[in-house]
Structure formats: C-alpha cells, structure tokens
Amino acid sequence: MRIGITGTPGVGKTTVGKILSKRLNLPLYNLSKLIREERLYSSYDKERNAYEVEPEKLRKFFEGKESFIAEGLVAHYIPVDYLVILRAEPEVVRERLKERPYSQRKVEENVEAERLAVIATEAFENPNFKRVIHIDTTNRSPEEVAEIVERTVSKGEELFEEVDWLE
Ligand SMILES: Nc1ncnc2c1ncn2[C@@H]1O[C@H](COP(=O)(O)OP(=O)(O)OP(=O)(O)O)[C@@H](O)[C@H]1O
Ligand SMILES: [Mg+2]
Predict the structure, then answer these.
(1) Domains of the chain, with CATH numbers?
(2) If you ran DSSP here, which 8-state letter would residue 154 be given?
(3) Residue 17 beta carbon below 6 angstroms from any ligand 1 atom
(4) Which single residue of 60, 84, 99, 144 could bond 5 by disulfide (Cβ 3.0 to 4.6 Å)?
(5) Distance 97 CA to ligand 1 centre (A)
(6) CA 135 / ligand 2 centre spacing (Å)
C-alpha cells in the first residue's frame, strides 16, 4: 500500500502521518527531510528558506517501493494507491501555524493558499493517485482523521468531502 498525504502547511500531515504509520504498520517518510537528506532538490530558495524539489528525483526515490506513507506538500508528485488531501478552514490553519516561529507573512501566505485550494488543485490537475481521500480536518482530532483514512483505505473506497472556504 502506497499512501501520500498532502495539504497546506499546518493542516496536519505530519501529525496524521505518524498515527497512520503506526496503525497501518507502514514506514513513514517526511518529504522535506527526505528531500534534504537524499538531495532530491534542484535548488535552494533563499527567500523561502526551503529546497526546491526536483519531481523526477522524488519519483525515482519511490520507484519500486510498494509500502509506504509519504507526507509533505509535494506528496502529489509521487505515484500512490491513495492520496490523502487534508483540508482545514483557513482560520484553523492560521491558529495551527501560530504555534510556529513563522513570520506573519509566511502564515498569511499559507492561510491564503488553503483558502484558494492551491495544493488540492495541483493534485487534481496532475493526478498520480489511484484513489483519493479529501478530508476536512476542521472539527476533528488527528486520531479521528487517521481513523477515517484507515477505514476508507481498508474498504478500498474513496472519500471526497466538499469544502468551500471562499464564502
Ligand atoms: N484534525 C487534525 N488533524 C491534524 N492536525 C491537527 C488536527 N487538529 C489539530 N491539529 C494540530 O495541527 C497541527 C498540525 O501540524 P503538523 O505539523 O502536523 O502539520 P503539517 O501539515 O505537517 O505542516 P508542514 O507542512 O509545515 O509540515 C498540530 O499541532 C496538530 O496537533
Ligand atoms: Mg509536517
């Protein structure tokens, strides 16, 4: 089983990934760490203080691997059986990001990205998944989210919860 978890920063990929990895007994890859350690980047973005992923290198790393969870906002580049797209109300994303030492600008950029569904749109425009789980984490705990994902995966089903942050 190959599972990707994507979504705007602060939406809960790492938190949910850890719970799911234990429950499903699958190795967990944190993509930002992996990209750094395995040098799967093309350049370093000084302004953003982040590496620019090289999608081909990322795909190559996962080629032939059949059991894993890969979590990170570039997970949608990796061919998977399930892509989990985590969503949260922009206000909730802001609250979750406030815990971090991010600049206000960085927080607002991410809140805006969630409002406009940037990551979800990218994933659907260039689908590398067989099945999708699009889930609203707003009024749920990480455990509840992981449980819904586990249940959906074990049944071989898909899940698409509608969200609209533009109203
Ligand atoms: N239902 C939920 N699902 C996931 N995380 C939640 C939920 N409710 C609250 N949280 C909290 O939101 C925060 C999400 O942080 P986390 O580091 O998991 O996000 P992330 O998507 O991995 O961010 P980044 O892209 O920056 O790595 C955590 O503090 C987590 O406990
Ligand atoms: Mg994370």
Answers:
(1) 2-160 (3.40.50.300)
(2) H
(3) no
(4) 84
(5) 9
(6) 17
